[in-house]
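Moderator note: this is an archived Q&A kept for reference. The question asked for a predicted structure of one protein chain; the sequence and the answer are reproduced below.
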Amino acid sequence: MVTPLSRDALSELTDARIELEALVLRRSVVEGDLAWESRLVAVHHTLERTPYTAEGDDSRVDDDWAAAHGAFHEALLDGCANRRLLQIALGLRDEAEVYRRWSQPLGGEPGRDLADEHRRLLDAALARDPEAAAAALCAHVRHTTELLLSAADRLERDQSLPSPAVSS
């Protein structure tokens, strides 16, 4: 089955993600143990060291980076002892990944420091500050959604422009 992509669906998905992922992250930060912290540091290290765009193609997110990014976000939430909440949150995140993959890369926009966003998430989690971690996550998810919607607007504008006449 093909998932329809729409602004309304993305907005609703973002709202659900923010509510649920913030809850799960807060619990993860409080309940996670030393093994959770170690995994989080390790996957963040991999994310930091993996090139964002594909070699020779700056218009495409590198598959290894996408996997490292997913592993980092999963590790953030994995300290939550309630596995049912965790699975629901991860399912919503997987749905959102369809939108991110559908668009162009969203890491090099002016004013966006994606590595810093991830570092803030890591630092808040390791500091065991559930409110700072949740706030950083909400800002990160909202920012990505805003960029996706802007990219969709640009695509629609570009597709509605008349094609230039070809002269010989």
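Archived answer notes: Residues 117 and 140 are 7 Å apart (CA to CA).
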